[in-house]
Structure formats: C-alpha cells, structure tokens
Amino acid sequence: MTEIDFYELLECERTADDKTIKSSYRRLAMQFHPDRNPGNAEAEAKFKAISQAYDCLKDPQKRAAYDRYGHAAFTQGGGGGGGPQGFEGFSDIFESVFGDFMGGGRRQAGPRRGADLRYDLEITLEESFHGKTESITIDVAANCEACDGSGAEPGTSAISCPTCGGRGQVRAQQGFFVIERACPTCHGAGRVVQSPCRACGGEGRVDKTKTLEVKIPAGVDEGTRIRVSGEGEAGGRGAPPGDLYIFLHVRRHAIFERDGTTLAARCPISFTTAALGGEIEVPGLDGEVLAIKIPAGIQSGKQLRHRGAGMPVLNGRGRGDLIIEIAVETPTRLTARQRELLEEFRTSETGEESPQASGFFAKLRGMFEG
Length: 370
What we know:
4-stranded mixed β-sheet
C-alpha cells in the first residue's frame, strides 16, 4: 500500500502553522467536495484523504506523533493503534515520546516493530509530470525463512521469560515510587529463546537484498514522501515490519522551472517579432506543441500565461498553468542589407515608436534644464 504524506495532501510545508494548514484544507475541501463533483469517484477519494490528513494535523498531539512516526503512528504495531479519526492508543504514543522523561512509563511486552527505512530517489521533471513505476533495490533485514522469524531452532519455540514472567517489564522501588523498566533478560519481549536458530543466530532476521516496484503518481514534487507499508526492517522475532519511505528529488530541468503546479520558461524572441507581433511554438512536457501568440510591441520581461499547460495536480484532476517570460533579443550579426534597412528605420524615427525611451530622456533633459 502506498500512502502520500499528509503535508503533501494538504499542499503545505512541514513547518506550516495551524492557520496555513486550516486555510489550505478549506480551499481543497471546497474544490473536491462531493457536492461540487457529483459522480466523480476520484474527487470523493481526494476529499476523504484531505479530511483524514486535516483531522490529524489540526490536533497538536496527533501532529506531534505523526511528525515523529509518520503513518505508523496510527497503525497497529506502529507505536499506537487506530487511525486519525479515533486515535486509539494515543497514550502509548505519548509515553513513547515522553516516557523517559517521566521515568520509564508503561510499555507493552513483546518484540518491537521493525525500523522504518528511507530511500532517496531522483526523477526527471518529465517523470514527475507523467508519473511512473520505478524499480528500486534495497538492503533490508528480513524475516529468517528457516525459523519463520521466531528466532528459535525449527522444532522448538520461545518460552516465557523467567525473569519477568512474560510481562517484559521489571519493577524497582525508588523511595515512594515504583519504576517499571524493560526486562534486562528478554529486553521487553516477554519471551526468550533457549535453542537459537542456527540460520539467524536467534535474531529471527537475516540481511537480504530485494527489488520493489514502486508507483510514483503524476504531479509529485521535490520532497514528496511516499510510504510503502510493510517494506521496512522486519520486526524482531515475528513483530510487524517497519515501513519504507521514499523521498523524491526532482532533477533541475534545462528549460522549465516549477512552482507548485505552475511551469515557467524564459523564451527569447527576435526584435522584429517583438515589434510586429507573431506566433511562437513551445513544446510542452506532455509532448504537445503550444502555439503562443505574441502581441505587437511586447517588451522584455512581459509574461504570457497559457492556462492548463502546467503540472498535473497531485492525486487530483486538472493542471496548472505555463508562464512564458519574454526576452527580446537584439541581433548581433547583421548583413549589409539588414544594416541598411535599420539605418533607414533610424532616420525615420520620431520618438513615438519608443515612448518609454522618449519619456525617460525627456525627464533627464528637464532635470538639467530646471
């Protein structure tokens, strides 16, 4: 299962304040509300996803747990149970965050969930535009096949820890307080292996290289985080595995720059096209050639917007815009005939052809004459 980061769903930075998150949620909720998109299953799914993300991030405690554990904070075996709606077992998350400060805290006995893994993946802007399925190879601690992850030699099994009686915790008296800590014998597992598996040395895990096919949706941006459930490190002795988090990095493009769903490109045009107007062709990332009309008398720095030709909306519908910034290029190599024609044009100038230049120099003359 692939899950998109809550901050990505709400189109917010991880450092966004509550007001920004709320504003972004309201905007997206209005855009994808089922009443505004009747019969649109994609819009309904998007609406549910952003509602779930906002339900988590609007609550300071849930957000703190999510920032530390990600989606694992709301799955069984991931530091807490339930989901953002009910957030069952949040006390376990709270104790995991603040337990050491409070003197240890209560912890459930049993093997710990496997660690999460991070994988950094670089893609091109074109791949971000279209989406793709990427094959990645990772080195991971996987369940030992010989003992099926139990850590015990085949034919045997783990027994209840004699030190803690299977509780995984031992108590110690300190003045008026009774402190519970992880059992030093079973390390909180509650069970011990008497006959360790020879294949994994009793760990229940072995190092393994595996290849995964990961779907990257269209519209992902720099820093987008994709969660692949259950593909992290295997848990100790049968405990649930961690998750794999893929962090995406979009390679710089030679022509286009990106800002959210907006694409921008600087386009040089000849000074004759700028003066007389015309049409230029710009290839889009989707392969379609866009015809951009140039109005007569356009100046350098002028921006022309082509709606719907930008990046696709992540997990949504529609596309952003393409902005073309005009750069008028002065010719540097002229034939004799071209120079002759330009000389004729210069001698016929009245000043009205270039009102900005005329106005500027008129002001300068006024300054000195005054």
